[in-house]
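Dear support,

I submitted the protein below through the web form. The confirmation email said the job was done, but the results page showed an empty box. After a refresh the structure appeared. I'm attaching both so you can tell me whether what I see now is the final result or a partial one.
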Amino acid sequence: MNISKFDYFLPKSFIAQSPAKPRDSSRLMVIDRTTGKITHSIFSKLNDQLTKNDVLVFNNTKVFQARLIGRKSTGGKAEVLLLRNLGGALWEAITKPGFKMGDKIFFEGFDANVVSKKEYLVKMKFNIQPSKLLEKISIIGKTPIPPYI
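What the results page shows now:
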């Protein structure tokens, strides 16, 4: 998949840098599905848009602190974004800067080896028990923030 197909221009003034205060004062785009007309409102007026046939689905998931900052064997900074666990101590990740097979990344009290690479994705094997790795991630991991913020 060519992810550049999802690129578009968005003026910086349209990008929220922090949550609205109060939270329900954030902007709400409303699309009339029958006419295609777009109007703008705020979340505190969401009830004005709903009908008796509407269904609200709430997402109460928590963000995984999947961004890890470590060091390359040369001492330079290494950034890893864990995408998914592939079983045990093996993870799929995106690294910054890019790494090669066999490269090692050092973190606080553990490290990982790049065992495969395909384009921007790598598979990393950590040298720590999976349960201990999750503990360490909860301590040193950062919440991923989109690059435009």
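Response: this is the final, complete result; the empty box was a page-load delay. The beta strands are 27-31, 38-42, 67-72, 77-87, 90-96, 104-107, 110-118, 121-126.
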